[in-house]
Design goal:
about 160 residues; alpha/beta; Maf protein; five-stranded mixed sheet; 6 helices; about 45% helix
């Protein structure tokens, strides 16, 4: 069973719903979820909030958070996940924000740096990863890690 199939099964068995709030993965997490038959019972919506303006307008990420920590930060990932739950009216939301490259990296925030967060009924867990590879590989690794985070959060909850 794939991780996304397991997530859908866990959500169904617990009567929970999920949304996604993606930046660097550009809808890959949503795409993997909607590939599972029966997901329409638990998947409400997916937002690709690539720009800071979209993160603020659609997810309620605070301008102060973006100014202080940047779009690629634990703080932004947490606000994206929590805002996704609030805006979509779901029990669960997973977020991704990072630098897929090939450009845009710095010493402090290298290409491959990705933060993700999962909010389940008001409890939020966040992770920091540094992936390697080309843009597509970093995005794919990010989507996989985000799904694994959702699975872990659901199993712990």
């Amino acid at each position: 069973m794939s991780v996304e199939e397991e997530i859908v099964e866990l959500l169904e068995s617990r009567g929970l719903t999920i949304a996604t709030a993606e930046s660097c993965t550009g809808g890959m997490v949503s795409a993997r979820l909607v590939g599972v038959a029966g997901v329409s019972q638990v998947f409400m919506e997916g937002l690709v909030t690539y720009s800071n303006e979209a993160k603020m307008r659609l997810l309620g990420v605070k301008e102060e958070t973006l100014a202080a920590h940047g779009a690629v930060s634990r703080e932004t990932a947490v606000e994206m996940a929590e805002g996704g739950c609030a805006r979509a009216g779901t029990d669960v939301c997973v977020s991704t924000t990072g630098l897929a490259g090939p450009g845009g990296g710095s010493k402090e925030k290298p290409v491959g740096l990705v933060y993700m967060a999962c909010c389940v009924k008001g409890h939020t867990a966040a992770e920091r990863h540094v992936f390697s590879g080309d843009r597509q590989q970093i995005r794919e690794q990010s989507a996989e890690a985000a799904l694994q985070l959702v699975r872990t959060c659901l199993l712990q909850g």
